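Worked example
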Amino acid sequence: MLDTRFLKIVSQFHVEQTRIGILYSGVTPRSTVDISDEVNSQVAAANGEAVIRLSITVDGSCSARNAFPVLNIVPVWPGCVPVSIDGLIVKRRPLP
């Protein structure tokens, strides 16, 4: 593990994705979240080397879908789960 004193923060990392569930989440098309391409592109764009302090937040609300609360009891009415992933893009500081 590298001491953070030897790292320089060059940018913020942020990705948002929403996943859909049908039949009370029994059917979840594209339920996995793969952020590898986003990590690679954002780290390269920031001229960084890694992402640290990665945090994943799941927000329980999907305002557009929840605007009709009575329909949420219908099994075929899709629900959704917004996922937000944040972190810091860093690179190594030169050694003194």
